[in-house]
């Protein structure tokens, strides 16, 4: 596969070049060395340790061209996950692409909280706006007895989710096409969770990398960033069993407004949970259980 480099174009030189190119880009400087190493290893289809162990070796021409193309695209801010077509989430490796959001580490907090709640062994669970299927598949991996459904308005996103389910051997998840609760009319669940769009449409962050590469409809509900969250808070009780839980990811400053809305709607035990950066990121709320009759 390799030849010995005698002209300064070995793996070590390629890695240095890629790192320098990314460091020179405001869109890619933050993780330049890590991203360059990940991209070069992926282009060569070898572990990253190979780059350090054999810096003098020369990459095949096709792998070198692939790496240089990825570096040019990464310089413009395109997410590494889109370049490689995959992203780690929870204990899974997921296929991702421009049809779905890149799963973020902070979204794993939704999985953590779902697993921490008291739910039946055969709980009925609904993931709204599933995208790549990250949440539904993570829960399916952790809870074999849960009956999990996942919906999305995007057929392209559902195609990605289904491929992930097949590759991971988690095909028992039910995938449903439609907007929010539309595909589950008349059904009730023990747990509903969602990472809905919650960025104001006018926020300039949407025009910058990496968000400018991701599906806009999965990022913003329009001028009011709370619109989707408020809609789910208002409509979820029609689809929750008594004592059922609602879990919603939201922006770092949206927790108080969402909690107020949920309390007004009649939810109990409304709490916001912080992510690893210390930001309020997930709000959980319980629909009241049926009270026993007074004697």
Q: Any descriptors?
A:
295 residues, elongated, Rossmann fold, 35% helix, alpha/beta, 11 strands, two-stranded antiparallel ribbon, Helicase, Ruva Protein, domain 3
Q: What topology, given as strand order, has the largest sheet? A: 7-6-5-8-9-11-10
Low-confidence blocks of residues: 1-8
- What is the CATH C-level name of the largest domain? Alpha Beta
CATH topology of the largest domain: Rossmann fold
The assigned CATH architecture of the largest domain is: 3-Layer(aba) Sandwich
Number of helices: 10
Q: Pairing-aware structural class of the strands and helices?
A: alpha/beta
CATH superfamily of the largest domain: Vaccinia Virus protein VP39
Q: What value does the Rg take, in angstroms?
A: 22 Å
Q: Kindly report the average pLDDT value.
A: 94
Number of domains: 2
Q: Could you estimate the helical fraction of the residues in percent?
A: 25-40%
Strand content: 15-25%
What does this structure look like?
Strand 3 and strand 4 (92-95) form a beta hairpin. This protein has 2 domains: 3-77, Helicase, Ruva Protein, domain 3 (Orthogonal Bundle), CATH 1.10.8; 89-286, Rossmann fold (3-Layer(aba) Sandwich). Residues 1-8 have low confidence and may be disordered. It is α/β, with parallel strands linked by helices and 295 residues long. The protein has a 7-stranded mixed sheet, with helices on both faces. Strands 1-2 form a two-stranded antiparallel sheet. Strands 3-4 form a two-stranded antiparallel sheet. Helix content is 35%, strand content 19%. The protein has helices spanning 11-23, 32-44, 49-53, 61-75, 80-84, 108-116, 134-142, 155-168, 227-235, 255-265, and strands at 3-4, 57-58, 86-89, 92-95, 124-128, 147-152, 174-177, 189-194, 240-249, 268-274, 280-286. Helix 6 (108-116) packs parallel to helix 7 (134-142). It has 10 helices and 11 strands.
């Amino acid at each position: 596969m390799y030849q010995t480099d005698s002209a300064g174009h070995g793996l070590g030189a390629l890695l240095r070049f890629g790192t320098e190119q990314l460091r020179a880009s405001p869109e890619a400087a933050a993780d330049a060395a890590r991203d360059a190493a990940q991209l070069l290893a992926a282009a060569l289809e070898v572990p990253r340790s190979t780059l350090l162990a054999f810096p003098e070796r020369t990459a095949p021409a096709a792998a070198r061209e692939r790496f240089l193309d990825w570096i040019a695209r990464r310089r413009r801010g395109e997410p590494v996950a889109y370049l490689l077509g995959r992203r780690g989430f929870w204990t899974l490796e997921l296929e991702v692409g421009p049809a779905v959001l890149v799963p973020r580490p902070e979204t794993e907090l939704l999985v953590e909280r779902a697993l921490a709640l008291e739910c039946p062994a055969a709980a009925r669970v609904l993931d709204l706006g599933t995208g790549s299927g990250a949440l539904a598949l993570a829960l399916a991996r952790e809870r074999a007895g849960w009956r999990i459904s996942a919906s999305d308005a995007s057929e392209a996103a559902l195609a990605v989710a289904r491929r992930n389910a097949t590759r991971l051997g988690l095909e028992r998840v039910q995938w449903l096409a439609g907007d929010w609760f539309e595909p589950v009319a008349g059904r009730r669940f023990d747990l509903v969770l969602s990472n809905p769009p919650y960025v104001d449409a006018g926020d300039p962050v949407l025009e910058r990398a990496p968000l400018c590469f991701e599906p806009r409809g999965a990022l913003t509900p329009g001028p009011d960033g709370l619109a989707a969250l408020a809609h789910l808070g208002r409509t979820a009780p029609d689809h929750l069993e008594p004592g059922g839980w609602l879990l919603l990811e939201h922006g770092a400053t949206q927790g108080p407004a969402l909690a107020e809305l949920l309390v007004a709607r009649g939810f109990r035990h409304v709490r916001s949970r912080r992510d690893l950066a210390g930001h309020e990121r997930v709000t959980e709320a319980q629909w009241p259980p049926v009270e026993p009759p007074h004697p």
